[in-house]
Amino acid sequence: MSLLGEFDRGDQAKIGEQLHRYAAELFPICRSITGDGIRQTLGQINQRIPLQFSEVPTGTEVFDWTVPKEWNIRDAYIKDASGRRVVDFRRSNLHVVSYSVPVRATMSLSELKQHLFTLPEHPDWIPYRTSYYKESWGICLAHNQLLALADGDYEVCIDSTLADGHLTYGECYLPGRSEEEVLISTHACHPSLANDNLSGLAVATALAEFLAGRDLRFSYRFLFVPGTIGAIAWLARNREKTQHIRHGLVLTGIGDAGAFHYKKSRRGDAEIDQAVAHALRHHGESSHVLDFSPYGYDERQYCSPGFNLPVGCLMRSVWGTFPEYHTSADNLDFIHPSQLASSFRLCAATLDVLEGNGRYQNQNPFCEPQLGKRNLYRSGGGEAIGEEINARLWVLNFSDGDHSLLDIADRSGLPFASIRNAADVLRQSGLLVALPDASEQTSNSPDAKRAATRRPRVTGAAAPD
Ligand SMILES: [Zn+2]
């Protein structure tokens, strides 16, 4: 059974509701790149999938970066002269600039304004701001809140700590038949923002749950890391593991109503790039494929030139292009159960392609083999052959060792599942053999031996089993 087939047999509305509910559970937590917020988040993910936690001490050098101090926040407010909280962290954790140093002071409105951030063009929204690598403090508020502040003195409190501690990340490893890996990475460092962060977290967690316990070709590694510094820390501490990463995907911002955007890996022609583009083409929603650029999410680190890993980034609306981005309007109403479910479905379709792709060799390449005598053709003459038989003809014609099943699917315009099924049927009939995949050590399989005797030079071959 394919992953997509399994997904489609389920109740998609219910899956969407579950994903949204899970995002809602995680929403109130005040996350940052370090501290108890991300720990608590990883703890909740660990209740669903087995996570291995890593704690990297403050001051640890990770490539050109240094793990920062750990930040924790308990409360923050601005009180007016009457003692009333006019800005209250308990109402929204976006009110505090992430990584603000502790403050307890009384100051005039004009002095206070140096530290206030608003969005005049969206006067009811609170912006999301951070200051990870420069010690400062700030309060974010709705512009209308700011306009309502009368002249006078205000008491400011940011009850935070910024001290030596740890950076925390979590990973879930699901072993497959091959030690080659599919990496799924998502950042887990944003506070109460739904699309940017929680949509990716929710789908990645559900995907790991969905894959756990299955017989999988690849091993899967799910990373839940603080953005940038977390991915850099993981890469610095796991450099040798990166050689096993065959495909990778950063998941982020996949719960909003916008069209899908897939940003290709730096390589641009990696199998993951082709697989996602194929899955999008057959998914039935509008989508765009973007070339790699060195700005974005953690694909920047995985695709830095020293690593150049085959890792792309799946989004819906692209960061920074929609007004709700990094504001309080990126809330639980901004993400939708149906969009979350559809994003999950697209991931399942993509993984089916990766799991099932490979190269085959037609054992009967001189003219078409007679399918009828093998019961592989339609029974009567005259009628149209239909997709099933058409897929068999495509697979036979292009299984020359150079074309993968995904190449054949793209060239024929047929969905990968049809091509994959055709290859299975033809293989059972002896018309096709799988070519060996160097990484999977299938060279002792009977198929590989037969292929090797007929076609001595096999390059870049990938067998799906
Ligand atoms: Zn963000």
Write structural notes for this entry.
By secondary structure, this protein is α/β, with parallel strands linked by helices. The protein has 14 helices and 19 strands. It has helices spanning 3-9, 12-26, 36-46, 109-113, 143-147, 194-211, 229-237, 271-281, 299-302, 337-356, 386-398, 405-412, 416-428, 446-454; strands spanning 52-57, 61-62, 65-66, 70-79, 85-88, 103-108, 116-117, 139-140, 153-163, 166-174, 181-187, 219-225, 245-251, 260-263, 287-290, 311-315, 359-362, 400-404, 432-434. Strands 1-10-12-11-13-16-14-15 form an eight-stranded mixed sheet, with helices on both faces. Strands 5-4-9-6 form a four-stranded antiparallel sheet. Strands 18-17-19 form a three-stranded antiparallel sheet. A hairpin with a 2-residue loop joins strand 2 and strand 3 (65-66). The longest helix is centred in the C-terminal third of the chain and has 20 residues, at 337-356. The model is unreliable at 438-465 (pLDDT under 50).
Give a brief rundown of this model.
Helices cover 32% and strands 22% of the residues. It has 465 residues and is α/β, with parallel strands linked by helices.
